[in-house]
Every structure is written in C-alpha cells, then in structure tokens.
Amino acid sequence: MALSNLVVVLLGTASVLLPFSPADAGVVGVSYGRLGNHLPDTASTVKLLQKSGITSVRLYDANSKVLKALANTGITVMVMLPNDNLAAAAADPSSARRWVRRNVAAYYPATRIHGVAVGNEVFEEANKNLTAQLVPAMANVHDALVKLGLDEAVKVSTPIAFTALQASWPPSAGRFRDDVAASVMKPMLDFLERTGSYLTVNAYPFFAYVEEPDKISLDYALGNSNAAGVRDPVTGLVYHSLLDAQLDATYFAMEKLGTSSSSAQEPNFMARKGPRAYVSESGWPSAGRPKPGGRPRPRGGGSGRRCLEEEEAGDEAASVANARAYNNYLINRVLSGDTGTPYRPGADMDVYVFALFNENQKGDGADDIEQHFGLFYPNQTKVYEFDFRGGALPSWCVANASVGDARLQAALEYACGHGADCGAIQPGGACFEPDTVVAHASYAFNSYYQRNGRGSGTCDFAGAASVVHHAPKVGHCVLPSNGWVQETTATAKSEGYTAI
Questions:
Q1: Cα–Cα distance between 435 and 370 in angstroms, integer?
Q2: In terms of pTM, does the model score above 0.85?
Q3: Could you point out which of 100, 322, 359, 396 has its C-alpha 20 to 30 Å from the C-alpha of 443?
Q4: Domains in the chain and their CATH numbers?
C-alpha cells in the first residue's frame, strides 16, 4: 500500500523531510535579438516585456539605448561582450576594464545587469584563434568587475554551442571535443567554479531531432510528458526529455574534466557541487526550413551532411503547434520549479527562450527557420499562446516514475503530511485504485501543487514530480487543474484526459 509508512515518516526527523521542501525556481527569460529592420522601437519592446511578465533578457551586445530603457524596470539583463571585442579583452586588461566601465558599471544598478557573456559560441567561429583567447578574456572581465566591486552581483560566463560536446548519448558518455576539452573547457570550468559562476549552453532539441528523426521521437524532443522513456544503459537513469539528456550529457562532460564536483559514482546526486549548467538559448521554430550552413548541429550522431530526409523532418517539425508545445514546456517547467534532471535532480536552472521576435535579417531568405524562432511577430502579437507568469495556462503536477518507488514514496508522504488532501487515496477511497505508488504520488503531488496556488517550486519534490499541461487520469480518477474528481472512463476520453 502506497501510504503504509506515512505515520513513520511524519514522526521522523526534519532531515528526512527537508529534501522535499519546495525548491527555488530558476529564472526563465528571453533572448532579445535585433537582426530585423521591422522590429518595434526599444521603448515599445520594454513595455511589451513588462506587459508579458518577462523578467529577464539576454542581449547580444550592450546596446546603450536598450540598457537605458531597461533601467528601473526590475528586469534582469545579461549583456554580451561581442566576439569582435574578445581578442582585445584577452590581450589587454585595461581594454576589459574600459569595456566593463562603459557597458556595465555605467548602467548598474538602475539597470539590473546580472551577467556578462564573453563572446557567443566562440568554438564555432571561423577564426579559431579566438578559442585560445576565451578564458583569458573571461578572467580579465571578471578582474575588472572585482576592481569595481561588482563581481558578486555580476557573473561572467560564455555561451557554448552544444556541438562543443564530442559525444552526448547516452548522457553518461558525454564528453567535450578533444580540441577544446583540456585546453579551454578545463580552465574555463575551474574559473567558473572559482568565481561562483555557471556554464551557459545553447541547447536545441529541435536540431537534434531534425538530424536524426528516425532515432529521436518528436514527443521526446518536445518534452511532452507522454514521451516514452529512454534509458541510459550505464546509469540506468530514464529520460523523458531530450533537453534533460543534453543537460546531463553536459554535466557528465564537466565531471570527466575533473572539476571538484562529486565523482560520477557518488550515489547522492543531490550532494553534487561544482559549476552549474544553465541554458543560454533554447527554442523551437514555428515555420521555415533548415538551411545548409545554418546553426551548428549536435555531434555524436548523423553523417555530418544535410540530406533530404533531414530537410523534410525540419519542414514538418517547424510548426506553430510544435513551437507552442516546446516553449510552453520550457517556460512552465522553470516557473514550476521543476528544474532538476535525472542525474542532477536538485539542480536549479536558468533558461533564455530564443527568441523575443521573428527577425527578418537572420538566415537566408524568408523561408529560413532562423527567421521563425520568435515568440512575437514584429507587430507585437503573439505567434502562439504562452504565459511567463505561469497562472493563466492550466497545469497539473504528476509523479516522475523514473526516480523509482522509494523516492516517490518518501515524497508522497511529505506531500500528504504538508497540506495535500490524501483522503481519496486511502483504502476504500474514490481514487485508491490503482493501488500503486506512482498513482498515489500523482494524486498527492497535484493536491499539494494546486493547494499552494501552483506556485514556483511546489511541483518538484527533489525531481520526483513534474508539471504537465494536459489533464491526466489514473483509473477512473481524472485530475482537473483544481483537484481530483472521479469520472467515468467515457467522460475522461471525451474530455481528452491522458492516462498515466
């Protein structure tokens, strides 16, 4: 019986319950690119951000007009030192200091700059000389922040393309490319850990799916909760989301370089330390076709040449429905506090959705997918519905079966002991059947989540739960967004409930 140990746990020590306290949610923002000749002016864009509840933006420069417009709005900002300035910042500390004074200190704290991205996807640049300059430039920018007393408030990182990984499947085989692993990534990770910063990764499940549509299911790439689980044969961890697999591959790659994180054999995944991995870009196009010479594609699979099947997969995958599904998965996952991964269940995560607008000067022609990643059209209307406040879209909290019955049982008992209404899953209750830990945990998790106003961090339970955006059912019990009710199977089917 799923609730058989409830009294024992409720009488236990606080340390037993502590891991299931609501987690601090990460931050979900947008990448604000401006490669378009039809985009709204800066003042209008800032009003749009505020109206939409978007509280964090990533810029691809440190544009003075934008930074002034963002002053006193409360919106946090990551600015970027462009690749063109990287060599100078690396070679001359005074150049880095001038850049920081002009582009960070001049606007802080009225403009809430919290990060500096030094370059963007430097390893993919045609000029490979920049690769060796990356960590020295990061160090000089950090030293400039130290001298100005801003190093605690403003962290230094650099967004790397996911192609920096030589292998990414299974996640436990994740490793960085030989040309950058020891020479650049190792000193970079040491720098990030020493300065309390984080690695930022541009992760795009879309491009991995387009490369291998015969091996990757669309549901898995989109993060749909009904995606079949894929098991890592080494760790036994089960993945229902390609983004999770990409993030864990990154964590394994980091560990292989010998950061002070716990070893890969450490059984307590929650105890891992070391640099965090945040998502500096992720998104899904609503239209268009992948073009040769576009974004770098993931390594570790595929022929390396675009073929007809890949183009056809891209055509089919790039749709409004799929973009809505993926980006809402991304937004609502972070807002719910469900930021952990199978390997790092306690990890927090910041995400920047790419991108704010469809930009007509990106890519190669109007049918290039690069012009169709925006959440908004240039006229400021939404491409599809989304909600950065997390309150308008219906959502439910369900159990993550991949963590195993023991962790689900402990989290279930925590939920029932901390406000969830668990009467209906007691023996004889309306939702007692099926009498499984997964079913009872989903009931308890959702009750806790709904009773706490679907607040950030209330559907996490150290990675044992996740938010979904379709109404699930267990047996004859379906789960509306304000609690469970008993329904007939026919009613459940007619209303589109999905069995779990």
A1: 49
A2: no
A3: 322
A4: 28-260+270-290+316-376 (3.20.20.80), 396-478 (no CATH)
